[in-house]
Design a protein that fits this description.
The protein has helices at about 1-15, 20-35, 40-60, 60-90, 95-120, 130-135. By secondary structure, it is mainly α. It has one domain. The radius of gyration is 23 Å and the shape is elongated.
């Protein structure tokens, strides 16, 4: 997709790409700023190359304006998602509590898996799922 965006940009030329510049820059910016674990370095390099190509194509001033608008929009989206999560905990405390329990359970499982990988002889106790037993009220 990134190669396609670069090729279309070059094909359209300097004047005709300007209205579409924020649309083209959005996925490139997202790839440059992503920080997930399984990130492909070739994608990051490719997006950087295409950004450099766009800078040369449209000029630094036009590119900077478009890039800053994309950056601002991404930051606004991130802040809005964070605000939604905070509001959800207040509005629906039972759903938030369930999510929190699930997060803690996953964290414990990850910790056990990590310990097992570091020490192969050690076997961590795993929670067995007994659907009916878990649903029953225990006094």
């Amino acid at each position: 997709i990134f190669k396609f965006l670069g090729a279309i940009s070059v094909d359209l030329g300097q004047d005709r790409i300007k209205p579409y510049l924020p649309t083209v820059l959005t996925p490139l910016y997202r790839e440059l700023n992503s920080n997930y674990a399984e990130q492909d370095p070739t994608l990051k390099n490719l997006s950087q190359e295409i950004i450099e190509l766009l800078k040369k194509l449209v000029g630094l001033e036009v590119f900077s304006l478009a890039f800053s608008s994309v950056q601002k929009q991404a930051n606004q989206k991130r802040a809005m998602r964070k605000k939604q999560r905070a509001l959800e905990t207040v509005a629906n405390p039972d759903i938030a509590a369930r999510k929190k329990l699930k997060r803690h359970k996953n964290k414990a499982e990850t910790r056990k898996r990590k310990i097992e990988s570091l020490r192969p002889l050690y076997k961590a106790k795993r929670h067995r799922s007994h659907a009916l037993k878990d649903l029953a009220m225990v006094e």
